[in-house]
Write a structure and sequence with these properties.
The chain has 198 residues and is α+β, with helices and mostly antiparallel strands. The protein has one domain (3-196). 28% of the residues lie in helices and 26% in strands. The protein has helices at 77-82, 112-125, 142-145, 154-166, 175-183, 188-196, and strands at 3-4, 17-26, 34-42, 51-57, 74-75, 102-103, 106-110, 130-137, 168-173. Strands 1, 2, 3, 4, 5, 6, 7, 8 and 9 form a nine-stranded mixed β-sheet that branches. The chain is globular, with a radius of gyration of 18 Å.
Length: 198
């Protein structure tokens, strides 16, 4: 089972879930694009307690045109291994080829507004019950791009991951702090955007 540790302020209210946003690269310029991926976690609890990686259902909703509307319901690994169908959309987990239609990563590439809107959508879908964790690289060098390079040898990948780890910084926008900011009149997409771009 995949797990993570995230340091969270223990004097703030935390969500049941964690939306982890990893920014691998930010292009130069005013209208810059962000590249990275999103993971979802079931929060383990207070500071130092491990969290459980969640999967999301990638089945197309009935009536969807070319995959334009997907389920995206969150699943624990036990759901996938013990249940034949997604409890959210009712569709089978396996397609006609036998491939499981559940993944643990959402890739993104787009503007800060696009990313903020996507994270806000996930936050609302989780009934505003999530912390948002930002993982980003401090510098923009070529080995960050290697994260997406599948042609590397295992030794090269291991070395690259060590370099990435040493170059990351992690920030947490807790559910409690976000709720206070929204109660003071802040806009959800704008607040998330300011956090991701801080």
């Amino acid at each position: 089972m995949s797990k993570m540790k995230v340091g969270r302020p223990d004097n703030e209210e935390h969500g049941t879930y964690t939306i982890e946003v990893t920014i691998l690269r930010k292009e130069a310029g005013t209208n810059s694009n962000y590249q990275g991926f999103i993971h979802f976690w079931l929060t383990g609890g207070k500071l130092g307690v491990v969290d459980e990686l969640l999967y999301f259902c990638a089945n197309e909703r009935p009536g969807s045109i070319n995959g334009s509307v997907r389920c995206l319901g969150l699943l624990r690994v036990d759901n996938i291994t013990t249940m034949p169908c997604c409890p959210h959309c009712g569709m089978p987990f396996r397609n006609r080829n036998g491939d499981i239609q559940a993944f643990d990563t959402q890739h993104f590439m787009g503007s800060l507004k696009d990313l903020s809107t996507k994270v806000a959508m996930h936050f609302r879908n989780l009934r505003n019950n999530a912390d948002i964790v930002l993982v980003r690289t401090r510098t923009d060098t070529s080995f960050h791009e290697a994260e997406l390079d599948r042609s590397m040898s295992p030794m090269q990948r291991a070395k690259m991951k060590d370099m990435l780890r040493s170059d990351r910084e992690i920030s947490c926008y807790t559910k409690g702090r976000l709720e206070k900011d929204l109660a003071a009149g802040g806009d959800l997409v704008a607040r998330i955007g300011a956090f991701l771009n801080a």
